[in-house]
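ok here's Helicase ATP-binding domain-containing protein, seq below lol
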Amino acid sequence: MERKSGKRAREDDCIPESAKLKLGKPDPESFARRYQLEVLNKAIEENTIAYLDTGSGKTLIAVMLVKSYAHLIRKPQNNIAIFMVPTVVLVQQQADVLEMHTDLKVGRYWGAMGVDLWDRRKWEEELNTHEVFVMTPQIFLDNLRHCFFQFETVRLMIFDECHHTRKKMPYACIMNEFYHRKAIENVKNLPRIFGMTASPVYSKGTTSASCAAEVWQLETILNAKLRLVEGAEAVEEPLAVEGR
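and the structure came out like this:
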């Protein structure tokens, strides 16, 4: 686990209001803080878990990471990026941010859309249309299990609130059933892993030794190194999302 110091966060993940005034798609790197760029560079180099306080800009790092993979996932290539979040509200929020700050084709998916009833042809249409898929993890897991998505085409997997990667939870099943199995088979070009959390320890009231064990388990299952940014400085304006 790596540590990085900074000032304490106060607000939700955000991007300066001035970005809204720019023509075209605002470039997140133009207003990112130094610690965000440092975490981004680590995430580009290796699988990373960003451990930052709520309000310290984890979403901005994720957006910049997606942009760094644009050349690998842009059509007509078949490669894709997967951005997983645990709630429908976050599906909408993160998809809005990606559309605001990238020119990539973003699809958003959650259970109430009836995706459980979609067949291979419908998912092929989505794969032919979109480059970034924002969804709840159970949908991605089901698609992998039904072979609607080919794991080899996934270049980037983002796990929002990745502390939910435990036991039989969908995040854990995705890693155990697909990522680690492919790693054992020596499959090349496994997707980059980026996890985000404000609390990497899932259990409450545990001892220091138990906390360390949970962090180790999280790093192991995500095959990633946890990078702690202590008290990263807060940003001043809410995320620049059209219509908000």
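fwiw Strands lie at 2-5, 48-52, 80-84, 106-109, 132-135, 154-160, 192-197, 225-230. kinda neat tbh
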